[in-house]
Amino acid sequence: MIISVMNQKGGCGKTTTAWAMASVLRSKGKTVLLVDLDPQVSLSLLLQLDDSRTIADALKGTFDITDVIQTVDDNGDVVAGSAELPLLTESQSQLKRVLKKADKYYDYVIVDSTPTASAVGLAILQATDKLVIPAMAALPVILATRQFKDMVELAKETNPRLDVAGILLVMYDKRGVVTRTLKEIADDVATELGTKVFDTSIRKGIAVEEAWASFKGLLEHAPNSNPAVDYVDFVKELGV
Question: Is the pTM of this model over 0.85?
Answer without folding.
Answer: yes
